[in-house]
Specification:
Radius of gyration: 26 Å
Distance between the termini: 9 Å
CATH architecture of the domain at 448-555: 2-Layer Sandwich
Strand content: 15-25%
Shape: globular
Helix content: 10-25%
Largest sheet: 9 strands, mixed
């Protein structure tokens, strides 16, 4: 068959609202995406509910709604367990629908996946996969998270306002100490120390394997600390201005020398976890050093292994040899801790390296479909976007900082898009998509547990520790948008009689509608539905709450509990959809609805391959230059 496209490139931007993307294009921050739009089609795309990473990317990658693929949330109801027991949602084995890359393989073609979200453990058989475990610290490969060594007077760099909880934003750990304090002491016992105009000082730098990661996704159980020694000295009379990093108190054992604002090169080093030696990459930046030697700040990004994060395994060795070190997390969890400039320098490297890997793999392997994703757009949704619009009510300085942060994020993403799109020829179709959007903050987000407690449905035995009294609790929230009745005979702790089930649900829905937000006096709930009625938002099955609710965007964080059509300020929850290249019309803003589940079947149609087995979406015929090509 003479199908319109021979290859496809799918570029993912997690959390990139079409509303915000279009704004960035209009502001001139995304010239490469603007060119792609001009020679293709675009449309704000309806995503899944909840507007969240696991159900969103799984829907895009399978063409099936959450009610079918069953990857509902980051924290999914554990059937048969207590209502506060959940299953971690970043796991391809949970999906009940076929992934598009497996459909590609079933058609005899080869997929390449580069950090494609929600694709680990790998299901590829003949293709190639690089990483794909999840956002930020949600990975099973990192040797260690970032380290920020600080000495003397140090001040964090938050933007203020409420933070999205880890249930919504697992790319940042909020209960882990954000810095690594070090003592600035006189340097004693050093050999071959450089000449210093002032008495040199010493800092001990300890890299701790397994630090700053999700405990349930650690590479092992115990990491052996690795020590480096830093010598602070004054190369001139103006004060302390140099850092010498050594493996011992011997300057001949140096690994790097830095002035303020400088990065080291990446170097490969050994790290011990559970008694096993692993190779990983280190890099450092001297962020600040005062002339008086009483302020010190050294940033060490995520330590990523040289092997073990690809399928097949030997691909990691090839990347290590021909490309260099990989980096999965560009320091998202350090936002608001390290300075913005350092984060964006690392983000640019991260995006360059993603593109480097894509170029290497496509040049050295046969391939038919390339999947590549960045999470940076979601990182900015949870940080900079929160106060990047005047509706947030923030001060002028914070507003300017956040607007700059959003613009820098999307400019960096666009540079990666430009390099990846360069891989396309005239027979390639290119799709740029996102899994959900993001909105700024306006009012304090609604705490659904507090609402349930106030209405008498949820009772704590220990309010301070949030320990639930299951003998008096009639309903509890699970995941982001689900509320389950503590039903006798179904739940291990059930107290609600089956005969009272329906009335309890109706009372619960009425209580949600009756709730008023303390700041505004308005009802923050956009809807509250029974499980049966939740089919209208494509949720079905036992994993769906007995009651499902959605919040208006003014009362939520960046995303999650908002409906997929919500908008607020410069943001919104519409997913990004841009399609261009082989078989696609040019310069058209589509008029008819496009849904996340339509992406996979449309690509399959253009490639002339079968549909994913559980597909529920349809072909976006309005986008096609020849919708009936298969008849000719």
């Amino acid at each position: 068959m003479n199908n319109p496209a021979k290859r496809a490139i799918v570029i993912g931007m997690d959390g990139a609202a079409m509303e915000l993307v279009q704004h960035m294009v209009d502001q001139g921050q995304m010239p490469h995406l603007s060119q792609l739009m001009a020679r293709g089609v675009k449309r704000p795309m309806i995503g899944v509910f909840p507007t969240l990473t696991p159900p969103g990317w799984t829907a895009t990658s399978t063409g099936a709604w959450p009610g079918t693929h069953q990857v509902m949330d980051f924290n999914i109801r554990k059937l048969g367990g207590r209502l506060d027991e959940t299953v971690w949602g970043i796991n391809t084995q949970l999906s009940q629908a076929e992934y598009l890359w497996n459909t590609v393989e079933r058609a005899g073609k080869k997929p390449l996946l580069v950090k494609w979200e929600m694709s680990w453990p790998p299901t590829v058989q003949t293709g190639i996969q690089v990483e794909g475990t999840g956002p930020g610290v949600s990975n099973v490969h990192q040797i260690a998270g970032y380290h920020l060594f600080v000495g003397g007077v140090w001040t964090p760099r938050p933007i203020g306002g409420p933070r999205d909880p880890e249930t919504l934003d697992p790319s940042a750990l909020q209960k882990v100490r954000s810095v690594d304090p070090v003592a600035l002491v006189p340097a004693e016992g050093w050999q071959e120390a450089p000449t210093s105009a002032l008495p040199p000082k010493e800092v001990v730098l300890v890299i701790e394997p397994l630090k700053r990661g999700r405990p349930d996704m650690h590479l092992g159980r115990e990491g052996t600390p690795k020590h480096f020694y830093g010598l602070l000295y004054a190369a001139a009379d103006e004060g302390y201005d140099r850092l010498l990093v050594c493996r011992s108190r011997d300057a001949r054992d140096a690994v790097a020398e830095l002035a303020v604002g400088q990065w080291t090169e990446w170097w490969k080093d050994g790290f011990e976890i559970d008694g096993q030696m692993l190779e990983g990459y280190l890099c450092m930046k001297l962020v600040s050093l005062s002339a008086a030697g009483d302020v010190f700040e050294l940033f060490v990004p995520q330590v990523w292994p040289a092997t073990g994060y690809t399928q097949p395994a030997e691909v990691a060795q090839q990347i290590d040899e021909h490309v260099g070190n990989f980096l999965q997390n560009p320091g998202r969890d350090a936002l608001g801790v390290v300075d913005d400039a350092t984060y964006f320098e690392l983000l640019d490297f991260h995006h360059q390296r993603l593109a480097d890997v894509a170029h290497y793999l496509t040049a050295s392997n046969d391939w038919d479909v390339l999947f590549i994703e960045t999470h940076a757009s979601d990182y900015t949704s949870h940080f900079f976007l929160s106060q990047a619009d005047e509706c947030s009510g923030t001060d002028a300085h914070t507003l300017a900082r956040c607007q700059t942060g959003v613009a820098q994020t999307y400019a960096s993403i666009d540079r990666m898009i430009g390099r990846v799109v360069a891989l396309a020829d005239d027979d390639t179709v290119v799709a740029v998509v996102s899994d959900h959007g993001g909105t700024p903050n306006q009012h304090r987000p609604v705490d659904i547990a507090a609402v349930l407690e106030r209405a008498g449905f949820l009772v704590y035995a220990d309010a301070e520790k949030k320990q639930i009294d299951w003998q008096r609790t009639r309903a509890a929230n699970v995941g982001l948008v689900h509320i389950f009745i503590n039903l006798k005979g179904r739940e291990p702790t059930g107290i609600v009689e089956p005969s009272a089930y329906e009335q309890t649900r109706l009372d619960l829905i009425e209580a949600l509608h009756a709730y008023r937000h303390p700041q505004t006096g308005r009802c923050p709930f956009a809807l509250a539905l029974t499980r049966e009625d939740a089919e209208m938002v494509n949720l079905s099955g036992e994993l769906v709450g007995d009651v499902v609710y959605a919040l208006r965007p003014e009362y939520d964080g960046a995303h999650g509990k908002q409906l997929p059509s919500a908008t607020l300020g410069i943001g919104g929850q519409h997913c990004t959809f841009v399609l261009a290249g082989a078989g696609v019309k040019q310069g058209l803003a589509l008029g008819r609805q496009v849904r996340a589940v339509d992406v996979a079947p449309t690509l399959c149609y253009l490639l002339g391959i079968p549909m994913p087995e559980q597909v529920e979406g349809g072909v976006i015929y309005e986008a096609l230059a020849d919708a009936d090509w298969h008849l000719r």
